[in-house]
Amino acid sequence: MQKRKIIFRDISWLSFNNRVLQEAADETVPLRERIRFLGIFSNNLDEFFRVRVATLKRMIQLGNRSNMHLELSPGAILEEIQEKVMEQQKEFERIWNEILRELKKQKIFLVNEKQLSREQQKFVLNYFDEEIRSNIVPLMIESIQGFPVLNDKSIYLACKLSKKDNSIPQKFALVSIPTRRLSRFLILPSQHTEKYIILLEDVIRFCLPNIFSFFGYDSFSSHIIKVTRDAEIDIDNDVSTSLIQKIEKGLKNRKKGKPVRFIFDKAIDPSLLTYLVRRLGLVQKDNLIPGGRIHNFVDFINFPESVFAQKKLRKKPFIHPFLRNITRVTNIVLKRDVLLNFPYHSFDSVIDLLREAAIDPDVTAIKITCYRLASRSKMINALTNAVRNGKQVTVMLELRARFDEEANLEWKEELEEAGVKVLLGVPDMKIHAKICLIKKKVNNRTVHYGFVSTGNLNERTAQVYGDHCLLTSDRNIMADVNRIFNYLEQPKNRVHFLKACKTLMVSPTGMRKQLLQLIDKEIKAKRAGKKASIMLKLNSLSDEMLINKLVEAAKAGVEIKMVVRGIFCLLTENKKFKVPIQAISIVDEYLEHARIMIFFKDGAGNFNAMVQVTYHPIG
């Protein structure tokens, strides 16, 4: 086999998710957090299949045209993915069984429908009648000519109904588990210190006779199944429709996307499994994955905390020392830079900056980019209040933020109703920048202040994502931020505005070129006998051109240290490296989301701020 030049990004991503699984396996991690990591692993894998596996399947349909930039065919990569996913599934089940044993030691019991006491049975029946019955509609799937579209974020109880004396033919049915309307976890009554929890699907299992008995059946078997669908939104080239209409159409089509994975309880009745696979139009290559009794572990991120004796130890964010005991955040930012580090520093300081701008009579305009917002966004509240106070507010709202498209369409409507000028991006681009510009009159002149950030402007994720946000009135930085907004409002002048940026590195117009030049300077310094080093903290490293340049630097003897959370495609073991590349990944309580690049630059130590206006081909 020919030696690979790089690690395939999808295989590398599975290695990242395996590190999440390692956190769940770590006995030094609190039990509540170990369960949470299983939920994160499950959610990550769902999105991986919806996007990356779906893309590889599309590439197979394209044939030879799709192999241009791959050392392996998409089919071969899918086979390797299937193998690794199956290995991880086995490890997942081992860890879960270990966690169940640890829960028992803490007198916490996850029970099923066959393990209920009489008192608990009465409680479950009552809960079913009062809360669940009205939220479920069983599907007698053999009577439906067109098989129902199964939601890929839902789990289903696949049921086999029969009569013990075989007097009537067996039937198959599906029951959608209503986890969007009801909690997946029901805490049961107990007379002692033990805590008992039953899953929503097991409550329904217990009550199957109440659902199907009027059909004449008296014997029931049921197992959980789950379908994952292609979640890529196809945006057609029809010039007669707007981007909004295209995304709305894409969202509707996403619900009917082709299945890319089918997960099922390995104990399922073989005849029922065969029937489901046939009706769903699946084959063995469609990632048929047998698993345990429980699926959709993403719900376990919200496993009940009340059952644990030891409560959450996570510390609350604190106010940055420069911003404590002050009247206004704005006054400090106009005098000096303040670097916030989330989730350790409070995100409230960013919200306060916007709130102050919204009511400040000397502020004339606010411009900001929004990508993923909290469901009850205080950012939006501040911006709409700014309009009411006579400010000109411009929001660059990226509609194509994957899985947030529908929410962003709703935000667009709310912002426009409030009088905000909403920009919807640039053709063939995804705007990923996190920037803000505020214009204020001070002594008859206009000053600019605001921020550049690595994190989404989302007060909820700011509590769990490790990010940086620079509050600043630096003239050079804000001049570049102003240039970016000028471009976003008049995208035809891309070269004029973005090439004029002096301080911020902006992609796709120049970031890669600038990074290559910075690496080249380190190589040149090393060859001249000077100290040379590069330190990188990134979400992912997959750009082949930059990887090749880092390899060249390592061969020249440049010291390279990297912290890369997710995808990492560079092969660090190479006998030609004069200094080994040091690369680690951090997976812990918080999601590492910050991007930092430091180049030694003849001993100067140059910090490079990153603003992403990222190229994203559509279609």
Structure description:
The protein has 619 residues and is of the alpha/beta class. It is built from 16 helices and 24 strands. The chain has helices at 9-25, 31-62, 74-105, 118-132, 200-206, 208-212, 243-254, 270-279, 329-333, 348-359, 378-388, 405-418, 475-489, 494-498, 511-527, 544-556; strands at 108-111, 156-162, 171-176, 185-188, 195-199, 219-229, 259-265, 288-291, 338-342, 363-370, 392-397, 421-423, 429-431, 434-442, 445-453, 465-472, 505-507, 533-538, 559-564, 582-584, 591-592, 596-599, 606-608, 610-615. The strands form five sheets. Strands 9, 10, 11, 12, 14, 15, 16 and 21 form an eight-stranded mixed beta sheet that branches. The protein has a five-stranded mixed beta sheet with strand order 3-2-6-7-8, sandwiched between helices. It has a five-stranded mixed beta sheet with strand order 20-19-18-22-23, covered by helices on one side.
Layout of secondary structure:
Elements: H1 9-25, H2 31-62, H3 74-105, E1 108-111, H4 118-132, E2 156-162, E3 171-176, E4 185-188, E5 195-199, H5 200-206, H6 208-212, E6 219-229, H7 243-254, E7 259-265, H8 270-279, E8 288-291, H9 329-333, E9 338-342, H10 348-359, E10 363-370, H11 378-388, E11 392-397, H12 405-418, E12 421-423, E13 429-431, E14 434-442, E15 445-453, E16 465-472, H13 475-489, H14 494-498, E17 505-507, H15 511-527, E18 533-538, H16 544-556, E19 559-564, E20 582-584, E21 591-592, E22 596-599, E23 606-608, E24 610-615
Parallel strand pairs: 1-5, 7-8, 10-11, 11-12, 16-21, 17-24, 18-19, 19-20
Antiparallel strand pairs: 2-3, 2-6, 4-5, 6-7, 9-16, 10-14, 13-24, 14-15, 15-16, 18-22, 22-23
Helix pairs in contact: 1-2, 1-3, 2-3, 10-11, 15-16
